[in-house]
Design goal:
Elements: E1 2-3, H1 6-9, E2 15-16, E3 34-40, E4 56-64, H2 68-79, E5 86-88, E6 97-105, H3 109-114, E7 120-128, E8 137-147, H4 155-167, E9 181-187, H5 202-210, H6 214-222, H7 231-243, H8 246-252, H9 258-274, H10 280-287, H11 292-317, E10 329-333, E11 344-351, H12 357-365, E12 369-375, H13 385-397, E13 416-419, E14 421-431, E15 450-458, H14 463-471
Parallel strand pairs: 3-6
Antiparallel strand pairs: 1-2, 3-8, 4-6, 4-7, 5-6, 8-15, 9-14, 10-11, 10-12, 12-13, 14-15
Length: 478
């Protein structure tokens, strides 16, 4: 294994599982270089269905360079409704072309049809009885271009390593197919964007919330300057960190930092009402000034950070990902999942004992079961044996316990378990500067101006977690 980039290690991704050198290059030279389309798992009723029984309009939206939260705000503004009435199945990357589902509660279909938003195409599909919720999709299909790779010849070696990791086989088992396709596996890490690509702090906010340090959570989000931000933004955040002058912060924080400004506004209001003194309830109220999905994201990011740490420790100890060891907790496949995705059902779990080990390993080999690690919450039951030892050590190091997630409203989380291995059928094509595919018979020493990756992932998994194994570069290039 290779040690990961320092920015990745800061969010718990300690290693690459491929020993091959990186191909280098960069993503997103244009939005069209990163395309993602939801594999939908949500069927609407016709538009003429009873609005009383089906009050939510469902739309398929294709976005160019839109953050999902920002688009939801723009859409609600154009419709003149509360942003809380707009829901979606999955948060997508801003620097991309994305096709995804949105629902809008109690909206006029004609008004939604007439909405014109730059770089957004809205296709009204029908009505539903409930909003689209986070996770209401089977997965995502990706077509991604890596431009100007430094060493494209390392693609095959990386693919071989990832094939071996998917099955626990040796390098010979991981030889690339002649047509460029392969079933590969990587640790099912939460990707950098879960924590903030330029400023990975959402897990730090979440950790402070779970520890009951509401003031520390606000400072972690509003203060806490990052080197990758513009200098003026760093100065504004440093001012907040040093002075805790919330009114002064509003004069300094850029307008684009709307969530940070919302927190500061709330604190200024509370200061004026109380005569200047602020307590835990005031800082909690400041955090509640942002949308409820962002409140949940803070806590989810803390869970994700702990999960990444657990996976990295499992890698370091050399425990397998494709099959369980005694003490592991596995979950079984979702019988309702689409054929193209073997999705784990986190509600159907089993603790693996020595006498059941061989049987459960066969289930994992056939895609019927998955080794898991916890996204810790109030109902989390930790594993036994060495996997349980890893989980407990990581949580102790982070000063976390399942009962700490018994929190108010949107911050509360019961937790779940998540598969630790991410498998996908992946195809890589080498292209010249004209966009033509380079014939595989041309040999690895023929330069490629771009690498085209095509693969699909189950919901909740990250394309960058696959691509990082190939590029092995600064996450900024992902």
């Amino acid at each position: 294994m290779r040690e990961a980039h320092p920015v990745e290690r800061a969010v718990g991704m300690e290693y690459y599982v491929s020993d091959a050198p990186g191909v280098g290059g960069h993503l997103r030279e244009a939005p069209e270089d990163f395309r993602v389309r939801e594999v939908e798992a949500f069927d609407p009723e016709p538009l003429d269905a009873d609005p009383g029984g089906y009050p939510h309009l469902l739309a398929r939206v294709t976005l160019h360079r839109w953050d999902t939260n920002d688009f939801a705000s723009e859409l609600s503004d154009r419709l003149g409704i509360s942003r809380e009435r707009v829901s979606w199945a999955g948060t997508k990357d801003k620097h991309a072309v994305t096709t995804q589902l949105f629902s809008v509660a109690k909206a006029d279909p004609d008004a939604l049809r007439e909405v014109e938003i730059r770089d957004a195409d809205i296709d009204l599909l029908g009505r539903t009885g409930r909003p689209v919720l986070f996770g209401d999709l089977a997965g995502n299909a990706f077509d991604i271009m890596v431009r100007e790779p430094d060493s494209p010849e390392h693609v095959d070696a990386t693919t071989a390593d990832l094939r071996a990791f998917a099955t626990g086989g040796g390098s010979a088992d991981g030889a690339a197919d002649p047509d460029g396709g392969a079933t590969v596996g990587v640790p099912n890490y939460f990707g950098q964007q879960r924590f903030g690509s330029k400023r990975p702090v959402t897990h730090e906010v979440g950790l402070e919330i779970v520890r009951g340090n509401w003031k520390g959570a606000v400072l972690a989000y509003v203060g806490n300057p990052a080197e990758r931000e513009p200098e003026s933004t760093q100065e504004a955040r440093a001012y907040v960190q040093e002075t805790e002058d919330w009114a002064g912060a509003l004069d300094r924080l850029p307008r684009r930092l709307g969530f940070e400004r919302s927190m500061c506004h709330r604190l200024v209001e509370r200061q004026e009402a109380s005569g200047g003194a602020l307590d835990d309830e005031d800082y909690r109220a400041a955090l509640e000034a942002v949308p409820s999905n962002l409140q949940r994201l803070f806590v989810n990011a803390a869970q994700s950070f702990a999960f990444n740490r657990i996976l990295s420790e499992r890698l370091e100890r050399g425990l397998p990902f494709h099959e369980p060891v005694a003490g592991d907790v596995v979950c079984f496949a979702d019988s309702d999942a689409p054929e193209e995705f073997a999705l784990p059902d986190a509600d159907r779990t089993q603790r693996v004992t020595e006498d059941r080990l061989r049987t459960v390993r066969r289930h994992c080999e056939r895609g019927r079961a998955f080794v898991t690690a916890p996204l810790v919450g109030t109902e989390t039951e930790l594993a036994d044996g060495e996997p349980g030892e890893i989980e407990r050590e990581v949580l102790a190091d982070l000063d976390l316990a399942p009962e700490d997630f018994d929190l108010p409203e949107a911050f509360e989380s019961t937790g779940t378990r998540r598969a630790i291995l991410l498998r996908t059928d992946l195809t890589v094509e080498r292209q010249n500067e004209s966009g033509d595919q380079i014939d595989s018979d041309a040999g690895a020493d023929v330069d490629a101006d771009a690498l085209s990756f095509a693969f699909a992932l189950p919901k909740g998994s990250y394309a960058t977690v696959v691509l990082r194994e190939y590029l092995k570069s600064d996450p900024d290039d992902l």
